TrEMBL record:
Domain Cupin type-2: 58-119
Protein known as: Cupin type-2 domain-containing protein
SUPFAM superfamilies linked: RmlC-like cupins (SSF51182)
Pfam families the record matches: Cupin_2
Taxonomic source organism: Streptomyces lavendofoliae
Alphabetical list of InterPro entries matching this protein: Cupin_2, QDO-like, RmlC-like_jellyroll, RmlC_Cupin_sf
Length: 186
């Protein structure tokens, strides 16, 4: 059984708000949000880790590239547990790389490195961890997307309005790079 906690931004959550408290969450029962065609589930965030790290999953169908972006104060980890995800990344010297990650593969993106990804197979899942001196960005997903109690992917992609794109990312150390070009060939 999972306890539920109330939050100012969510009526029910399985994640306790106070740090330093052990807890357990059943599969899929973290704080969920739909963003584009994906389901994002947060299991631990800044509130629980004193802004040390967050832990979340992103599940989605085969689709388009998630727009290029960077985090100025946050390192990000990609670990594929189902399917396949293509990770695009550019280092501080401007060298670009892309790598197809399949089950068990790991990718690391340091802070200030532009990156993007594309889900290459239906029903893919990525475990994400983000950490850095600037805190964590897990609440970005539900503030740009829409919170949901559903356990599955959205029936229709959830596309945020332009106003949200202009304001929400800045609050969560996410800077979109709309003119960024990937020269890696995929």
């Amino acid at each position: 059984m999972t306890m539920e906690f109330a939050r100012p931004y969510r009526s029910r959550s399985a994640i306790p708000a106070a740090p330093g408290r052990p807890y357990f969450i059943e599969k899929g029962m973290g704080d969920r949000a739909h963003l584009f065609g994906d389901l994002v589930t947060v299991y631990a965030g800044g509130e629980q880790t004193e802004n040390g790290f967050n832990f979340f999953t992103v599940e989605g169908p085969k689709g388009e590239v998630i727009p290029a972006h960077l985090h100025s104060d946050t390192h990000e980890v990609f670990y594929v547990t189902d399917g396949a995800v293509r990770l695009f990344v550019e280092d501080a010297e401007g060298e670009q790389q892309e790598k197809l990650l399949t089950v068990g593969d790991f990718g690391f993106v340091p802070k200030n490195c532009p990156h993007a990804y594309r889900i290459e197979r239906h029903h893919s899942r990525v475990v994400g961890v983000a950490a850095g001196p600037g805190g964590t960005f897990e609440r970005f997903f539900e503030n740009l997307g829409t919170p949901t109690d559903d356990l599955g992917l959205p029936r229709e992609p959830y596309v945020p309005d332009p106003e949200a794109f202009a304001t929400v990312p800045l609050r969560y150390d996410v800077r979109f790079l709309p003119d960024h070009q990937w020269r890696t060939g995929a």
